[in-house]
Amino acid sequence: MKFSYNWIREYVDLPAELSMKQLSYDLTMRTVEVEDTENLAEALDQVVIGVIKAVEPHPQADRLAVCKVDVGMPEQAVIVCGGINLAVDQKVAVALPGSMVRWHGEGEPVQVKKAKLRGVESYGMICASSEIGLKDLFPSIDEREIMDLSTFEAEAGTALAEVLLLDDQILEIDNKSMTNRPDLWGHYGIARELAAIYNKPLKPLPTAAVPDQIAGFPVEIDATDRCNRYIAAVYSGLKYEPSPYWLQLKLWKVGLRPINNLVDITNYVMLATGQPTHGFDKDHVDEKIIVRNARSGEKLEMLDSSKLNLSEDDLVICDVNKPMALAGIMGGKSDSILPETTEMILELAKFNPTTTRRSAQRHSMRTEAGVRNEKGVDAERMDQAIGVADQLIEELIPGAKLTAYEDCWPVHVTYPEIEVPLSFLNVRLGRELDFAAVEASLKPLGFEVKVSRRTETDTIFKVIVPSWRGTGDIDLPDDILEEVARMIGYENFDFIPPQIKLDKAIRQRNIETERAVKEYLAFRAGFQEIFTYPWIDDQYLEAAAIDPASCLKLATPPSPETSHLRSSLVPGMLEAIAKNLRYFDSMKIFELTQVFEPGTSNPSEAAETLPLMRRSLAAAVVGKDPVQVFREAKGVIELMPRIVQIEGLSFAQQEKPGWADQKVWLNIMAGDQVIGTLALLSVQTMHAADIRKTMAAVIELDLEKLEPLPSRENKYQPLPQLPLVEQDFSILVDRTVKWQEIEELISGMVKRCAFVEEYSGKQVPEDKKSVMFRVWLGSDTKTLTAEEIDAESQRILNKIRKKLGGEIRHG
Amino acid sequence: MKDKLMTMRDECLDAIAQAGSEQTLEETRLKFLGKKGELTSILKLLGKLPPEERKETGMLANQVKNQLTEALEAREQALIAEKSVVDGEFDLTVPGVMPESGSLHPITQMCYDLNDAFHSMGFEVFSEDEITSELYGFDHLNFPPAHPARESMDTYWLEGSENETGAKRLCLRPHLTGASVRYLKEHGAPARFVYPGRVYRNENTDARHERAFFQYEALIVDRDFSFASGKLLVKTILDKVFGRDVDVRMRAGFFPFVEPGFEIDMKCLVCGGKGCRVCKHVGWIEVMPGGTPHPNVLKAASLDPLEWSGFYINVGLDRLVMMRTGVDDVRMFHSADLRFLSQFK
Asked: How far off is chain B from A662, nearest CA to CA, in Å?
């Protein structure tokens, strides 16, 4: 929101030497964030009043004129201009060379230079209001119309900013930082803060002189839960006309467009006090004002010509026949201020913030009034607002008269009184304060501070909260603490190192294991960690053959096809593979995060039932060769327990997930419990996920089922005293023979054996495969002789031949 | 004969000096000192000399032999010292063979960096589930009943629960702050812990806005704790992220779950506080909110707010990573695009 520094200073005399920079800093540190400041006069540097002395046609161009203009210099300036309303003796705005203008009111400002226009040199330019950012203050009908300033008393050559009273600074305050402070949404509220910061008196606002004998006006509040005070002030003898320049200027400076005197008055009151107001044409109000919930199906055309379909959730201002305004947001088109209005009902009311916000949201109407009403308004401010309005109407419209007045106030609110122990403030602030210091912080903000009682060791204050801070903002000792601290200034508190007691080291095995798994995959196994969204695209859910009914759903998903929450990380993995295949033909990726399933869990209390959630790991090895990718993924699982320091894992075939290949899949086992799967993606899954011309081995693992070891486990084995002998074997066996069978067969006969490679294809009969493996032979008591080694080898081969029907290719 | 010896010696020394390889050196040795070498043929003439000359010349011949043997050895050592294990040219500019390396997501990296820093000060790491209830997401955190963030425009409520209230209305967590109450309920106070994680907001995305993003919260709860101690949390984070001492200021800010609440700024690292485009000419950059846990939050965690106080901060990890690495589109973090992710090692 924009604030005018001059306007603020009508309410408080700030130190003369105070710079805008300092003020911005102080306000930002203590109250609200000043995002920017703007010096209005600076933007109009080198723009002066000119008086046109002669207008002659341009010799080369029909649409241009050559003007002789008195710009306060010894010689008249020659200025070429295309304005359609140029006239001799007219006062105009002249942008001299060096000034900044926006061509045709658009784009970034550019510097004016002396230039030849169709052969005639022009000394600067005569401006249209849009060219110097004054379009809303001086509206033009035709874009070629120049600003006519003839009504202003000004010598030629006077700076335009001075003539237009633009010597002002505008503060732009971040709305977000004011959301909890409804009292700051008017100039008076900011003035109050500044008065407190700089310890200057805040000037009182005028109060309305409502005669005792004045007539009432019938007001009926049906929905008292949505409106607890409504003032209707009836003014007669009004005249609809443009506001005087000073009023237009004041509104314009803070970003509002001047409209007419009556509407401008209502806006002025809001900008001064923060209290929204609205004017109804009294002739249009039948009998009385009724504040009630709208009826379903009721319609209302608004001031901005939008047509609303109202519902019972909306609050409306009506007469006996019809709705006339959407309460606290915007007036209706037909019954608000009109050119023929001579009698106005001025509304000041306190509406329920939530009702206002929801109506504004439902009808997409963000208005100045709505923004303020949805933050809450206090009753005292309404009294201030009627005072400001009354004075302004009297000043602007001679003959205007307050003829009727009604203050319908069914529900009074009390404002809190808070007990604050001095010790509380001292401990939490980390410094010693006394009553005077506390009072000095709070009183200028409108708080009343009294000593409630004293104990031997403490003083208890009673703090009475002013109405404008009692809108939900302040009701606890901690709130008072904040007020005291910010007035002392947060920058004036030195850092106090916290004292920490150490009693034991931190051991969090679950958290440590998760990190160990991630670091193992990334740093040892060469995987890249990825993140995907928890809501899954239906395409990938289907590709992973997961039943959507087994997934939780979002009520308002990011898009209709991403409404399901993941119960597995596999669908996200499919999408990541498919997308990355555009750039890579092989990859290793993993994701480790929570997945969700219907069910019940109570992590914190019995009353709160959450669905099932667990951390899961998915990893994929993608490449051309199915055997290669599968073995690589399998190796990752085989090595993991040792590196991550968890209980061992094994493999078995028990439950095949839908996305797994018909043949190539294994469950990952912890003991006899299935805790995951390692498998090639099935043909069907790859088709559905658009994964083409490649193979992918995918690991899915329930991280919660990994059992961290209590401490690092790695048992030492004495080194062999006698040398071992390595022997390689290559055998030809049926394709159905498993490596595991070979291994089991020979492992008892050797110190160690290891798979080397497997081959089927050329030079191998169709139903056979060649398996190569290596064994280590040795004795604990002596070094084997060549004959003994040969004999051992023969024994191994004989056994394979006998049990598996294999034959030796070479040994 | 002495002359012959001397001449042979000089020839041999010349040849040794000129030998450019071990092979020529060996040839030289054989030629002069070998069994059929020149020294041997000279020595064969020794017997023909008169006895008195024989002894003298024999000694001289021995000296020459020793001298030459030493010269040969010295030359051999010199040649070995000059020698490379590789014959011919070797291109040192050919790149190395790098170890196969994956990497952690840049957000994880940042998160672990911060965990390590807080761990060193005795903070635990806590992680809350991603689905929470309105009770823990809002009610316990002192959000007023009609707070806009509770509406479905802002929060991802679960289908079937969206019209319930409190403990029965479930959502993807809108922030991490609710985890503080869960932890305190479970472990009590005093406590110091961090709780990183992903949070969700129902909003439109662009280069600066995401529906899923990461936060990092740290909380200390202790007796008689002043907010003036809270800077420790802020500085721990910023010093770790930027690798140097960063100036910090705390100014008034409002959040329902803290009182007093702060917006915390760091001095702009680009201009050093003078004001530049990066800091919008303010000299300071807003980095995180923070404050003392609101009494209602402590009460929700079954702690007496008169006894316990503390300090909390919440920082957006996505933004920290963006500031540290120059990433200019927050949506990259969930893109799973390996061209992007593999840049962060």
From this structure: 28
Q: Is there a domain that residue B66 lies in?
A: yes
Which token pair is B274?
Answer: 């003078």
**pLDDT for the residue numbered B149:** 79
B126 plus B67 within the same structural domain: no
pLDDT of residue A186: 95
Q: Is residue B92 part of a domain?
A: no
| Residue that terminates a domain, selected from B84, B118, B150 | B84
Whether residue B244 lies inside any domain: the answer is yes
Ranking A538-547, A643-652, B37-46, B169-178 by mean pLDDT, the lowest is B37-46
The CATH number of residue B163's host domain is 3.30.930.10
Looking at the domain assignment, is residue B267 inside a domain? yes
Query: Region A642-670: what's the mean pLDDT?
Result: 96
pLDDT tens digits along B273-283: 888 887 888 88
Dist CA A481 CA A420 (whole Å): 9
Cβ-based contacts of B162 with chain A (< 8 Å): 555-556
Report pLDDT for A752.
92
Number of compact structural domains in chain B? 2
Residue contact B124–A506, C-beta within 8 A: yes
Which chain A residues touch B227 with a CB distance below 8 Å? 428-430, 485, 493
Chain B residues lying within 8 Å of A621, measured CB to CB = none
Q: Please give the structure tokens belonging to residue A519.
A: 């670091």
- Judgement on whether residues B275 and B195 belong to the same structural domain of the protein: yes
**Mean pLDDT in chain B?**
90
Looking at residue A810, its pLDDT comes to 56
A353 interaction partners in chain B (CB closer than 8 Å): 146
B38 and B115 share a domain?
no
Residue B288 CA neighbour count, 13 Å, CB half: 25
B76 and B136 assigned to the same domain:
no
Q: Are residues B61 and B124 in the same domain?
A: no
Q: Can you tell me the mean pLDDT for B269-298?
A: 88
The partner residue sitting opposite B232, judged by closest CB among A493, A498, A525, is A498
Distance (Å, whole) CA B335 – CA B329: 11
B3 SS3 class: helix
Q: B121 and B31 in one domain?
A: no
Q: Which long-range contacts (CB under 8 A, 24 or more apart) does A450-455 make?
A: A452/A419
Do B250 and B284 belong together in one domain? yes
Optimal mutation site among A26, A366, A550, A604, interface B, most CBs of chain B within 10 A: A604
Which residues, other chains included, contact A393 with Cβ-Cβ below 8 Å and sequence gap of 6+? A235, A238, A265, A400
Share of residues in chain A with pLDDT > 90 (%): 78
The residue among B53, B84, B115 that closes a domain is B84
Length of chain A, please? 811
Lowest mean pLDDT among A230-239, A500-509, B32-41: A500-509
Range of the domain at B60: 2-84
- Does the pLDDT of residue A472 top 80, yes or no? no
A643 token code pair: 């590196």
Closest by Cα among A570, A535, A549 to A696: A570
Nearest CA in chain A to B343: A528
B299 and B217 co-located in one domain: yes
